[in-house]
């Protein structure tokens, strides 16, 4: 650790009443695929109040973006999170276009990532929200996202220059087989699941990291939003509180899905309404066999350990 880094750690530690220097995560690798270009974080210039929203994918990311957007803009009805809160490490559009757009933003920035911690440039300046969801629920949502991608979706991912690795293809018609392939090949055909969860779980103690869970948001959205606001140091305007809650509800987001879906939903059959789909958990329970479900749980326990595997099932319940 350099002297400058040590001094920065001490200053941040004092702010959060830490007695010893904080060991901040370090980037150790790059990830490239049909979706990822992790090198964009190497050039990103952090600001002191940046908010980074992380997840594996289909774990409540858009919902968390909506919550943060409503807190920042105090319940405004026209907050287009798909525009204001881009997925930074998505390689489309390329970083030469995306970085100047993000740099030009004058509001408090809230950006999205699907990277594991060790492929991310982690800054003490930013605050990080990481939202997770049971992997079985993730897959059911991911299948809808993947299977309903239209020609423009596959063309953008597969034919935009810079893709690394195999092309993304249409999935089979069986969501159960899709789940088995995803489990057997750790996130196939997207990216590894277990490392994503455990790298974020490992830094949950850091003062600028807050873990969220989809199930907790479902159980007590008002309480969770207040905790998020406190973590982000955003005072809540109580006169706007009912409006903020309405705008963060699934029904409202479904009715205004074009504000949440990338490019207004043009990449999916059925448009934005397909992107903002069901918003429910447990759809796998009537379709997965007991053996399939138990195999998932055994792998989760082996990969994550008891505490993290328990949390991933149902949050803090």
From TrEMBL:
Keywords: Transferase. The keyword Cell inner membrane does not apply. It comes from the Bacteria. GO terms for molecular function: sulfotransferase activity. Residues 48-300 form the Sulfotransferase domain. PANTHER family: SULFOTRANSFERASE SULT (PTHR11783). Belongs to the sulfotransferase 1 family. This is Sulfotransferase domain protein. It comes from Halomicronema hongdechloris C2206.
């Amino acid at each position: 650790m350099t002297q400058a880094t040590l001094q920065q750690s001490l200053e941040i530690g004092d702010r959060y009443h830490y007695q010893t220097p904080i060991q901040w995560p370090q980037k150790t690798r790059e990830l490239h695929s049909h979706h990822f270009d992790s090198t964009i974080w190497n050039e990103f210039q952090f600001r002191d109040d940046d908010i980074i929203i992380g997840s594996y994918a289909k774990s409540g990311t858009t919902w968390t973006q909506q919550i943060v957007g409503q807190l920042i803009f105090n319940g405004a009805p026209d907050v287009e999170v798909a525009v204001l809160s881009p997925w930074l490490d998505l390689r489309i559009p390329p970083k030469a276009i995306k970085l100047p757009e993000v740099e030009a933003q004058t509001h408090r920035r809230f950006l999205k990532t699907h990277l594991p911690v060790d492929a991310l440039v982690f800054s003490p300046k930013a605050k990080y929200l990481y939202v997770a969801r049971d992997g079985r629920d993730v897959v059911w949502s991911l299948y809808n996202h993947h299977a309903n991608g239209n020609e423009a979706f596959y063309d953008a991912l597969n034919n935009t220059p810079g893709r690394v690795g195999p092309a993304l293809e249409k999935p089979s018609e069986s969501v159960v087989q899709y789940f088995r392939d995803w489990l057997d090949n750790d996130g196939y055909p997207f990216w590894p699941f277990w490392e994503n969860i455990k790298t974020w779980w490992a830094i949950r103690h850091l003062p600028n990291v807050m873990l969220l869970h989809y199930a907790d948001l479902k159980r007590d959205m008002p309480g969770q939003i207040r905790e998020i606001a406190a973590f982000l140091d955003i005072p809540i305007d109580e006169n706007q509180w009912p409006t903020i809650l309405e705008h963060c509800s699934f029904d409202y987001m479904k009715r205004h899905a074009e504000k949440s879906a990338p490019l207004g939903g043009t990449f999916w059959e059925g448009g934005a309404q397909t992107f903002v789909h069901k918003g429910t958990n447990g759809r796998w329970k009537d379709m997965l066999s007991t053996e399939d479900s138990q195999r998932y749980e055994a792998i989760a326990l082996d990969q994550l350990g008891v505490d993290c595997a328990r949390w991933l099932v149902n949050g803090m319940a």
